[in-house]
Amino acid sequence: MRCDLCGTDEAIPFKCRYCNGTFCSIHRMPPNHDCSFMKDYLQQPSKDREFLEHIHGRAGLPHERIKSALYDTIYLRFSKTEVFHLVIATALVTAVGLSIYGFPFRLGFVRWELITIFISAFIIHELGHKFLAQFYRAWAEFRVLFFGAVITAVSALPFIPFKFIAPGVVWVGDNLSQSRSGKVSWIGPLTNLAMGTGFLLSYFILATTVGSANEILGAGVRFNGFIAFFNLIPFMGLDGQKIFGWNKVVWVLTFAAAIGLYIGGDLLTGGGTIGFLRRFF
C-alpha cells in the first residue's frame, strides 16, 4: 500500500489511530502528516508510550529517526489558515516599518527595498520558531492575536511615537520541555540578530571600499535590531519571557546584543531615537 502523504509504497504500512489514514514509517506519527486530530494527539496521557517515544525522538529504527528528523527540519508544513494569518500579520508589520521611516514614498513609487527588509525580518523570525519546533517534532502554527494585531495597527499611525510589533504568535504544542521551549523562543530573535549583523557588516564593507554605504543597509540593521529588542522583552508573553525563564544569562547576553544592534542602526540612519531619549534622561 502507498503512503497517503508521499505515495511511498510500504509493504507493511502504518495506520494512524486518529484519522485512520495509511502512512509510511516517516509519516506515521500525527505531526508528520498534518493529522486533523492533532489536538487529541497532544492531549494524550503521559503514560502513552508511542507519544513519549515520538517527542523524545526514539520511535523507529536509527535510520528512520535520522530520515524523519531531516524531513521535519527541511519540510515546513503550512495550513491554509496559517498562510492567511501570516499574510495579515506581515501587512501589519510592514505598515509599522513604513511608519518608522515616515512612509517614504517618492514620486508615487513604493520603496520596495524597505518593504523587503520589513517582510524578511518578520517572516524569517516566525519561521525560525516554526522550524525549530518542528525539528523537535512538535506541532507549530502561526496565528494572529486580535489584541496584538489591533495594537500593532494603531502603532502604525505616523503620529504614534512608540511602535508595537506583536500581531501574532507561533503556537507550539505543549509537549516540549522548558529547555526546548526556551530555545524555540530564542531562535526568533537570533535570526534578527544574524540578519542585522549581516546588514551591518555589508554597510561597513561598502563604506570602506566604495566610500559610501547604502541607507537601506542601515535600515536593515535598525529594523532587525528593533524586532529582536522588542521580542526579548521578558513579559507580555513575548519571546523574552520564555527565554528568561529558561536561561537568564542567555537572555541578558541576547538582549544586550539586540540593544547594541538597534542603537548602531539608529546612529547609522540618523533615526533620532537617541535624541528623543535625551529629552527625558
Architecture overview:
The protein has 2 domains: 14-74, no CATH class; 80-278, no CATH class. It has 281 residues and is mainly alpha-helical. The strands form 2 sheets. A two-stranded antiparallel sheet has the order 1-2. Strands 3-4 form a two-stranded antiparallel sheet. α3 (62-74) packs antiparallel against α5 and α7 (178-209) packs across α9 (239-246). Helices cover 59% and strands 5% of the residues. It contains 11 helices and 4 strands, in the order ββαααααβαβααααα. Residues 45-49 and 275-281 have low confidence and may be disordered. The longest helix has 32 residues, at 178-209.
Main attributes?
281 residues; two-stranded antiparallel sheet; mainly alpha; elongated; 2 domains
List segments where confidence is low: pLDDT < 50 over at least 5 consecutive residues.
Answer: 45-49, 275-281
Arrangement of strands in the largest sheet: 1-2
Whole-number radius of gyration? 22 Å
Helix content: 55-70%
What fraction strand? under 5%
Q: What is the helix tally?
A: 11
What does the average pLDDT come to? 81
Taken together, the total number of domains comes to 2
